[in-house]
Amino acid sequence: MTATSGTTTTAGSGPAPEASPAGTRVRVRVRRLALYTVLVSVTGLFLGPFGWLILSGLKTQGELAASPVHWLPELFQWHNFADAFQEIDFLGYARNSLIIALLYASLVTLSSAWVGFGFARLDAPGKKVLFGVLLGSMMLPQMVTLLPTYLIFARLGMVDTYWPWVLWGLSAAPYLVFLFRQFFAGLPRELEEAAIVDGCGYTSIFWRIFLPQSWPVLSASFIIAFTWTWGDYIAPQLLLSTDRTTLAVAVMTAYINEAGTPVPELQAAASVMYVVPILLIFLVAQRGFIAGTSTSGLK
User: Fold this and answer.
1) Per residue in 27-63, pLDDT tens?
2) Residue 234 belongs to what domain range?
3) Most confident by average pLDDT, 176-180, 275-279, 280-284
């Protein structure tokens, strides 16, 4: 053992070798390659069914029923898309879906924001119990409330009208209420106190201060609600007639041949055209959607 300048060292030992820059770069590249491989694999799993749907829309009925499976069509049947568009009143059913989706998404976003604001900023006896009941209602499957819902709307004379979606929109949605409650609970209390000092009531505070600040959650909630309604099959099938029904119901029920059996290639082509608007909406608004869902879970 030797001591030099108050430092004890072991004979034969030296400073720890530093990692070389080249080795560090190699490890970083390997990690990135592994990460990209995982991301590409997961993306392929998600896009695989949609890709298969597109290929099904480009096949003949014989190729769809063939065994073994024909992965690629021998000749791309592009006319299937034109036939699916012309076989039914595609634009009319799409208009019905758009009206219902916009109506419900707009109303439920505002009503959920209002309820979430109340749970986040107002104090009242039993508020935590009510919020727990609200969250518990998310576990109820739709099939449980299907028959009572139909009976209520039938008694009120609202079957074959769009009023059920208006009432659903005004009633708020538990999951969206949760998103808004989490977001509003994270805003500074000073904003609310300053507005109260200036003479604002809670209604003015909500509309003038809190709602303009919540655009990420507003956009996320609108996209979620719009997607729910656009993709809903059960409620329109139960409550609406053939003329007033939505595109989701028409795609599943309207493509029937003379024998009364479905025409799968036209159903597949129509399903592609049915899904594309939702994909475009998400691609355009994905930044706001991701920001809304992430900021709502900060507190």
Assistant:
1) 888 889 999 999 999 988 888 888 899 999 999 888 8
2) 82-295
3) 176-180
Please count the structural domains in the chain.
Answer: 1
What average pLDDT does range 256-282 have in this prediction? 88
Beta strands in the chain (DSSP E): 2-4, 7-9
CB 72 within 8 A of CB 55: yes
> CATH number for the domain including 241?
1.10.3720.10
112's tokens: 């959920």
Q: Evaluate the omega torsion of the peptide bond into residue 68 and state whether it is cis, within 30 degrees of 0.
A: yes
Tell me how far apart the alpha carbons of residues 170 and 107 are, in angstroms, rounded to a whole number: 6
Residue 36 included in any domain? no
Q: 267-272: long-range contacts at Cβ-Cβ below 8 A with a sequence spacing of 24 or more?
A: 267/84, 268/53, 268/54, 268/56, 268/57, 268/59, 268/64, 268/80, 269/57, 269/58, 269/80, 269/81, 269/83, 269/84, 270/84, 270/85, 270/88, 270/90, 271/53, 271/57, 272/53, 272/54, 272/57, 272/81
Q: Is residue 154 part of a domain?
A: yes
